[in-house]
Design brief:
Blueprint (H helix, E strand, L loop, with lengths): L6 E6 L2 E6 L2 H10 L5 H10 L4 H14 L4 H11 L16 H14 L19
Antiparallel strand pairs: 1-2
């Protein structure tokens, strides 16, 4: 198995951003989403039974974990999701907030491998047909 990553780069809002949930962000996410465990938040989002804060806070904290400053992450999240209530459809359209939250949570929970380019890696043999 290749090297798994817990960071994902996604098109969202007005550009391409790095998202990651690391220890500090996961702890804060658990607190701001009702003092529930990460697995509960993951399950709610994946099953579509999420609360607005699950989506908003996952995206905001994912931006911070991806290296963005907290003020800028909040500004972007407020702009492209909404402050107190959604100002965009949360589960419709390309790169919608629900899809972004699913990708961020999935990367944190399971990691992901880079998609192979099709080029041979040093020392690797590929079967011939």
């Amino acid at each position: 198995m290749g090297n798994l990553k817990a960071e994902v780069v996604l098109e969202w809002g007005d550009g391409e951003y790095a998202f990651a949930l690391k220890g500090a962000q996961i702890e804060e996410l658990e607190q701001v989403c009702g003092k529930v465990g990460f697995g509960v938040i993951f399950q709610r989002v994946m099953l579509g039974t999420w609360f607005w804060a699950d989506i908003y806070q996952t995206v905001r904290l994912g931006l911070i974990g991806g290296g963005m400053g907290a003020v800028e992450a909040k500004r972007l999240t407020d702009t492209y999701i909404g402050r107190e209530k959604p100002n965009v459809p949360l589960a419709a359209g390309p790169n919608n907030p629900e899809s972004v939250a699913r990708a961020v949570l999935g990367a944190a929970m399971h990691g992901f491998e880079d998609i192979p380019s099709g080029e041979a890696v040093a020392g690797e043999t590929r079967p011939t047909e």
